[in-house]
Amino acid sequence: MKSFCMYCGNSKPDAHQICGSCFAIPETHKDLIYSIIMCHSPDEPHLNFLSIGEIEELCEEIRKGNKVEVSPQVFSQAEEALSAVRSLGSPQLISKFSRISSPMVMIMLAMLLVGIIFGA
Ligand SMILES: [Zn+2]
């Protein structure tokens, strides 16, 4: 799976991991959605929200200093995917989340999910 940093446009190992280039972690709900959108897996096409070409275009915009923008449809699809994780309805996405190796990111993600669940 390929993931790209929504802050600097460089590739990183996993959507929820710290970026090796700018050391940013997606913290807000919106940033997490964008990070999910900016993942591409050739093995799991049903988890892709954009084509790899579209993601690369987004990265190009980020490197130029522009804001990331996706269509509202894509954004709501990713938002639904995230809420599917919340309701434990999507095994694929759970396995995607469980690949997180850094304990700190794991804790942050857990806190974030708790925040979402309890309507923070
Ligand atoms: Zn980065």
Explain how this protein is built:
Helix 1 crosses helix 3. The chain has 5 helices and 3 strands. The chain is globular. Helix content is 49%, strand content 6%. It has one domain. The chain has 120 residues and is mainly α. The model has no long low-confidence stretch (mean pLDDT 84). Strands 2-1-3 form a 3-stranded antiparallel β-sheet. Zinc ion (ZN) binds next to loops.
Question: Which structural traits does this protein have?
Answer:
globular, binds zinc ion, three-stranded antiparallel β-sheet, single chain, mainly alpha, 120 residues, 5 helices
Task: Give the secondary structure arrangement, pairings included.
Elements lengths: L1 E3 L6 E2 L16 H9 L1 E2 L11 H12 L8 H15 L4 H8 L4 H15 L3
Antiparallel strand pairs: 1-2, 1-3
Oligomeric state? single chain
> What proportion strand?
5-15%
Tell me, briefly, the overall form.
globular
Structural class of the helix and strand makeup? mainly alpha
The helix content is 40-55%
Number of structural units classed as domains: 1
Which ligands appear in the coordinates?
zinc ion
Major sheet details: 3 strands, antiparallel
Mean pLDDT: 84
Low-confidence stretches: none
Distance between the termini: 30 Å
**Nearest-angstrom radius of gyration?**
13 Å
Number of helices: 5
How many distinct beta strands?
A: 3
Helix-strand sequence? EEHEHHHH
Summarize the model shown.
The chain has helices at residues 29-37, 52-63, 72-86, 91-98, 103-117; strands at residues 2-4, 11-12, 39-40.
